[in-house]
Specification:
A 5-stranded mixed sheet has the order 1-2-3-4-5, with helices on both faces. It has a single domain, classed as STAS domain (Transcription Regulator spoIIAA), CATH 3.30.750.24. It is built from 4 helices and 5 strands, in the order ββαβαβαβα. It is 37% helix and 30% strand. It starts with a strand and ends in a 9-residue tail after the last helix.
């Protein structure tokens, strides 16, 4: 299944990047390109919805790390919500889940950005 990337604004200041299909070597640039374009337009809070990613390889994982660092450079924040099993397995085995916040639901991701953080937390 080819990679599909769509965006939607769900709350003021929060944009969701919905990714579906295969995040593999052949198509891994679509997600970072979309994220960078959003950051250039001033988006500061991004949720990556990876629930419908059917396959991911190491290059696909690296593309998500690129999204994280692009957001950091733009002084923006990014998290992952509803990651598919294959994404979760890759990120736990490579410990990327310690770098990018992984939240189990879209509601939890929205809360990550909207509920005031305790002292010492970031968002």
């Amino acid at each position: 299944m080819s990679l599909q990337v769509e965006t939607a604004r769900i709350d003021p200041g929060i944009t969701v990047v919905v990714v579906s299909g295969n995040m593999t070597f052949q198509e891994s640039d679509a997600v970072p390109s979309t994220v960078v374009a959003l950051l250039e337009r001033g988006v500061k809070r991004l949720i990556l919805d990876l629930n419908d990613v059917t396959q991911i390889d190491g290059i696909g994982g690296v593309s998500l790390v690129r999204c994280f660092f692009a957001a950091r450079e733009a002084q923006a924040d990014v998290c992952v919500a509803t990651a598919s099993c294959c994404v979760t397995q890759l990120f736990k085995s490579t410990q990327v889940d310690t770098l990018i916040p992984f939240l189990p639901t879209m509601a939890a991701a929205r809360e990550y950005f909207t509920v005031p953080k305790q002292k010492g937390q970031t968002a």
